[in-house]
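Protein in question passed on here:
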Amino acid sequence: MNEVQQLYEMLRKVQEPKGYYFSKDKDRVFELLEALLLNKKRYGYMCCPCRLSCGVRQKDNDINCPCVYRTPDVEEYGSCYCNLYVSEEWNEDKIPHLYVPERRPPEKVV
């Protein structure tokens, strides 16, 4: 099992009991997980690959995966901003797959 697969299994076991599932688009999920691991090597922490990191952990705390925006995104849209984490209903196509707008305040964006 490679590093991406290990991360997938570890996160799945931790997040699914909390009601957060990986998207059924496994190719996309594995791309995002690879990017998280790249960010971990680059910055020392796994910040969201769909957002720009400033490289300072304290300033990026809101976008460390899972980011603080995941819960409200999944509650409102069924998916987080990057579509890594989704609700069961989203994966089962019981709710529409709408665009998830950026919740991160502009002053935090690099």
Notes: The longest helix spans residues 26-43. Residues 15 and 33 are 14 Å apart (CA to CA).
